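Dissemination and training. As part of the outreach component of the grant, students in the summer workshop were shown how a complex can be specified as a set of sequence lines and then modelled as a single object. The example used during the hands-on session is reproduced here so that future cohorts can follow it. Participants entered these lines:
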Amino acid sequence: MEKEIRIDIRKLVFVEDVYIVSDNIITNLGFTTEENLDQVVSGHTGIKLMEDERISPEPFYASMIDREELTGRFSMLGNPERYTRFEQLVVCSVHDALLQTKLNLAGRRVLFILSTTKGNVEMLKDNSRTSPENNRLYLWESGEIIRSFFHFTNDTLVVSNACVSGLVAILTGARLIRAGLYDHIIVTGAEILSEFIYSGFSSFKSLSRGPCRPFDKTRDGLSLGEGAGTVILSSRPDLNPEREPVLAGRGFSSNDANHISGPSRTGEGLYIAIQQTLKHYKGKTDYISAHGTATPYNDEMEAVAITRSGLQDVPVNSLKGYWGHTLGAAGVIESVAAVHSIRNRMLIGTKGFLEPGVSQSINVIAQTRSENISNCLKIASGFGGCNAAIMYYR
Amino acid sequence: MEELIQNLKHEIIESLNLEDMTPDQIESDTPLFVEGLGLDSIDALELIVLLEKKYGLKIDTAEEGKKVLYSVRTMAENIIRHRNQ
Amino acid sequence: MSVSLHISNFCLIRNNHVMAGKHLLFTGKEIAFQDFIKEAYQHFKIGYPKFYKMDNLSKLGFMAAELLLKDRDLNRDYGKDGTGIILANAAASLDTDRNYQISINDRNNYFPSPSVFVYTLPNILMGEISIRHHLFGENAFFIQKKFDSLFMVEYVTQLFEKQIVACCITGWVEMDADQYDAVLFLVEKTGQLNDGITIFNVRNIDDIYCLKI
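and obtained this result:
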């Protein structure tokens, strides 16, 4: 019966405004949004030369969270022996974001959405068959572990949509609030770097020799990273009255219908996602937060799609030079940065970018600077030909 | 050389899952990519793995890959050159 | 805005059977999924060599979409970006993740395969369907413990209401070791399913999902 009732209530509710009332970022650069953005604005990167046999036989560049530090932080919240690194990371990120709101977690009007590509995949090692005790390989089980930790009422919704997962998760959350189905949605994107992920990108020859260089002439691939990002979406702005409200607007996720790994040369899917997003907004776009993985093909494709959309003069950056590519977390982490850029009237420079290296003349932000922006178009693309775009504004 | 080319054709079909094809349908000198078998970038990466795994031939750059993977014959030639090194 | 939505077709693949639009189309002789799906591919004369390159999850979902969309051209009917693909399952790409892990278990025989790795993401299946049917619209892949008809109806309905899609392929495509199950629905504003219009709602979706074949 409840099924019918929910749909009836929904028709009585009309919500358009979805507020981002709280957030968090955890990466090599810090355990809060503020710590991370302070480091980023100072031009520091989390990408370092790592030697970790568990991930790769050879030294490699990546942005990784200090193991002891994560365990130490988590031990204030729970028993680290009972939770994997991935689960600890998600819990720490959600916990910090919740601290900043007056959100009441109980109730059917709150939903938790988890975005990740590979979750606990490192548990597969020496365990090619799944046994009942490592149900944790299933992403829904990760969602269930987090639900149980925070005593959320509803089952967790997990999004696993390659490198656009984070944006699809936020888009989904914003839509479910707009549809009147929930009042508050916590969206966390998280990814742990494992041998599984590293070896795969390596076999794809996608990895950069040094720290990645988005949109630069000498770019030669991406740097991997691990991290988590959280945004709390709400139909109510008063959950965090001290902050200037920034809203999650409309968006779209599309497919290139071209190739399962190579970006489309015409940028068709991303172009469609941008068009479908911008049709809801009359004013000009002030800033684009690009995916900018620093692989030759991705950055070129984005430049083509941006130019086809007539946005070639809009300031654009990539934040991959600070945190690396955190896959299922990237869309959320970079959205948090976009929200703060809008609130702080600031454009963050593209770490690693020196000389333009794409065929189109786009307006890459080289140095961090103040600018009175009021919105941001966030875009992303990934394997499977998927693309996504969403608008944030104040 | 001809024996190696025959072996390579079998291995290409197997590693790229070209189920409907037989070795005779692969021309030794026709370009493997674009025309020919219509292979794509993932196939190229998979052939690089094949050459390293079976023949110890390492390909590091895209330029090198293009030359070596041009046709079945160029693959065989490079394997032989690598053996004689 | 409220819209009324119809299930204009559906396809089920389970227990060596293929069913579409209430008709049992094919019963395989082979028990193992690999063999069964190849048999089905040959039976339906699909003629798409890239099929052999796909992982099992993609083969399963691709085949279901093939029969769901038989004689349809959604790109023409709804424009290139008018059709959404909204899928879910429980195991994500775990079936292929296990295969990939085998290629990196031994450091002395360490040859990670790019063509296996690319399928260690469940949404690759949506890419395969999009490529085959020239569909550029909304895409999302969700992971849930079990088939959740309420979520599916609510999520897809709001996509229509907000005019994000004009047509939608939605369903459950699960592949986990030797267990497989696929049910896909074609959802449109108008539609005729054989003997009558079937409304896209929780009860009808559950009825179709629970069909024993």
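Residues 5 and 48 of chain B are 16 Å apart (CA to CA). Students were then asked to discuss how this feature might be tested experimentally.
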